[in-house]
Amino acid sequence: MIYGSICCVGSNCCVTQRCKISTVKSLQKPGYVTAQGRKSASDNSGFVFKWCTISGPQATYLGRAWRHYSRVIFYQTFMSAIIVPEGWYIWFSKGYEGVVTFAESGCTGPGSDISGRVRWEKQLSDDELKQFIDISYIDGEGWLEAQPLLD
């Protein structure tokens, strides 16, 4: 479970699976689920949310661009009605909409209606999507498999 009101999830690279994301009431309205900070086109960082649920008491954006090359993908995630129609906020990256990667695929729920989303939201091909939703996105060097098993 992830709780928060403004940028619940910060920078770096992660794949989050089957997580419940819940916003909380805040003076900042609407809130933001993410603020990813990818620094350049060659930076491999980004956030991927797979099979998650987003809910909470007030309106929120899926994310805002913390840096010009921000990357956030929501995959087969249930989005309650709290998601604002635009979905995404460019924040301090105005003029860099073409290099920001904010995308959704296979999401459900009343907040998943993409008809009102920002026009610069990316529509990823199946091949592009596959490279991010596969665990190899964060495990390219095999470090996860090398970890000891927990009892």
Report on this model:
This protein has 151 residues and is mainly beta. It has a single domain, classed as 3 Solenoid (Pectate Lyase C-like). Helix content is 5%, strand content 33%. The strands form three sheets. A four-stranded parallel beta sheet has the order 1-4-7-10, with no helix packed on it. The longest helix is centred in the C-terminal third of the chain and has 8 residues. The two termini are 22 Å apart. About 4% of the residues have low confidence. GO terms for molecular function: pectinesterase activity. Pathway: Glycan metabolism; pectin degradation; 2-dehydro-3-deoxy-D-gluconate from pectin: step 1/5.
Short description:
Belongs to the pectinesterase family. By secondary structure, the protein is mainly beta.
Topology:
Layout: E1 2-4, E2 6-9, E3 13-17, E4 20-23, E5 31-36, E6 46-50, E7 53-55, E8 60-65, E9 71-75, E10 78-79, E11 88-89, E12 101-105, H1 126-133
Parallel strand pairs: 1-4, 2-5, 3-6, 4-7, 5-8, 6-9, 7-10, 8-11, 9-12
Based on the model shown, name its key terms.
12 strands, mainly beta, 4-stranded parallel sheet, 151 residues, 1 helix, Pectate Lyase C-like, globular
